[in-house]
Amino acid sequence: MSKVFNLVGRPFPTDHQIITDDSELMTKLKKISDLVEIKSDINEAKKAIGALELSFKNTEKVASIFMFEDHIVNDSLLAFAFVQYAKAFNRSTGRKSLSGEVKKIFSNSELLEIHEYIIRMRNTVFAHRESDHNKYHVMCVYYNNNDKVRLQTDSNVKRVLLAMSLKEYLPSFREVFCHVIDYLEEETHLLCRNIENNLLDEQKSLISNNPNFHYIQER
C-alpha cells in the first residue's frame, strides 16, 4: 500500500502559511482539484454508457437476470450518465463550474448540440419534472345502468423506454464525454506546469524539507 502512495506523491502542503499566504497559488490548486474531480465524474458517466451498450448487446441475459425489468436498469444507467455529466456544468458554490467555458470547449457545433441535448434531458427528465415523459392520464368508466362514472387508477403509467429510444446516439454521448475529458486533462496539465514553474524558492524548500516526502529522481 505504501509503495502505491509514494508513486502518487504526498498531499501538497496547503496548510502551511508559506502556501496559504499565496492566494494566487491557492486558487490554482483549488482549480486543479476541481478539474480532477469533474474529470472523474465524467469518466464515470462514460463508463455508464459503456455498461449500457453492453446491456443492449446481451439483452436476453440481462432481461432474465432482472426479471424482464431490464429497461429500469438501462434507464438508470442513462440517467446516471447524464446527471454525472451535467454536474460539471451546474453552477455550484462547492466547486468550479464549466458553464462559462461551453463555447471554449465546444468549437464543434455538432458536439455542442449533443451537449445541450444532454443538459436539457438532465434538467427536464431526470432531475426535474418538466417533460411529458411518463405521465399518467386518469381513466374513467361510465355505467349506463345507474348513470354513474367511476375513475380508474389501476392502469399502468405509459412509460417511455428512454435508453432504448436513444440507443443509436450512445456513441455520440460517449464522444462528447471523451471530448470534455480531453479538455479537462489539457487544462489540468497547463495549470500544473504553471505552478511547477512559478513556485518560490521558499515554497520549494518547504516541500523538499518535509520529512514525509520521498525523493524521486526524474527520468
Give the helix level as a range of percent: 55-70%
Euclidean distance between termini CA atoms:
23 Å
Task: Output the strand order for the largest sheet.
Answer: 1-2
Q: How many helices in DSSP terms?
A: 10
- Give the overall shape: elongated
Characterize the biggest β-sheet. 2 strands, antiparallel
Fill in the keyword field for this structure.
single chain; 10 helices; 219 residues; elongated; two-stranded antiparallel ribbon; mainly alpha
Describe this structure in words.
The structure is a single chain. Helix 3 (23-57) packs antiparallel against helix 9, helix 5 (70-87) packs across helix 7 and helix 7 (109-126) packs across helix 9. The protein starts with a helix and ends in an 11-residue tail after the last helix. It is elongated. The chain has a domain at 23-126 and 164-208. The chain has a two-stranded antiparallel ribbon. The chain has ten helices and two strands; from the N terminus they run αααααααββααα. It has helices at 2-7, 17-20, 23-57, 59-65, 70-87, 102-105, 109-126, 162-165, 170-198, 201-208; strands spanning 139-143, 148-152. Mean pLDDT is 84; it is low at 1-6. Helices cover 61% and strands 5% of the residues. It is mainly α. A hairpin with a 4-residue loop joins strand 1 and strand 2 (148-152).
How is this fold's topology laid out?
Elements: H1 2-7, H2 17-20, H3 23-57, H4 59-65, H5 70-87, H6 102-105, H7 109-126, E1 139-143, E2 148-152, H8 162-165, H9 170-198, H10 201-208
Antiparallel strand pairs: 1-2
Helix pairs in contact: 3-5, 3-9, 5-7, 7-9
